Target: PHD finger protein ALFIN-LIKE
Amino acid sequence: MEMAASARTVEEIFKDYSARRTAILRALTLDVDQFYGLCDPEKENLCLYGHPNESWEVALPAEEVPPELPEPALGINFARDGMNRKDWLSLVAVHSDSWLISVAFYLAARLNRNERKRLYIMINDLPTVFEEVTERKPVKDKPSIESGSKSQGSTKRSSDGQLKSSPKTDGVDDEDDEDEHGETLCGSCGGNYNADEFWIGCDVCERWFHGKCVKITPAKAESIKQYKCPSCSTKSGRQ
Model:
């Protein structure tokens, strides 16, 4: 848990969260048969741990009180044989999501309000473990006709590189639009939206990125029919 102890910036905590999430997902998907076998109901209270090195472990809870980090759900093995396998894995996934969030915000205790908000948005941009295990697609926010939502349609960039929005009729609407986009964070660096910079939106995951972070210029964007961010491109390549 050395990395966890030193994780203090938003980026470091998100990296820790992502690694633990990857480990949990591996246990509940790729290594599910091994994980299922380790959760013997005849054994003592067992927990599923995801570690910062992306490895997972089924083990007894920490002995020290209070523990170094929040503990995952205790006794996941007891319900294994009393439930449908798929339902049991879904239950473990839900508890794992809660644990991942609790560890992240335990490490975020010293962050300020804006940093915690940025961390949550970065975490929330990823599908939950439950969604991945049950193969449920995240429910997307419905775009508002009046707001020119950043998730509206596939055409997400204008010739000058600005976020597209509906025409405004007065100054109040302009301020509202500015506030809306002001909460947009770059999916790569986590930086705030700035109207003076070129941004591009991924047509798959619908996250926004600084053009410079994903090496896309306004001119290059004009020739792209459907933009996929590096993360979504990697996933497509694996499939």
Q: What stands out?
A: The first strand starts at residue 47 and ends at 50. The longest helix spans residues 85-107.
